[in-house]
Amino acid sequence: AEGLLAKPERLAGIEHLGPDWNRYEERYHVRDGSTPGTRAALIGLSRWIETASDPDFRSGLGDRVDLPGLLRFLAVNALLANHDSFLG
Description:
With 88 residues, this protein is mainly alpha-helical. It has helices at 21-28, 36-51, 54-64, 67-80; strands at residues 5-6, 30-32. The chain has a two-stranded antiparallel sheet. The longest helix has 16 residues, at 36-51. The protein starts with a strand and ends in an 8-residue tail after the last helix.
């Protein structure tokens, strides 16, 4: 219900594109919810994903991502064989 709504296409993952928001808006196809806070959160998350050590990634993922929501998303997309999703 809240947050940044985007439809990333042709990305290999959550790529860190530097500090310039315009690069994210184009590549991630932002649809709704773009505020200074949500923009900073996406840029920070992408930077953390690229730079975190494996132990830091494992221990910090739950602080940055809604893991139950992510798992529901993954399960439904796998069940539907949705090729028009981030996983497709």
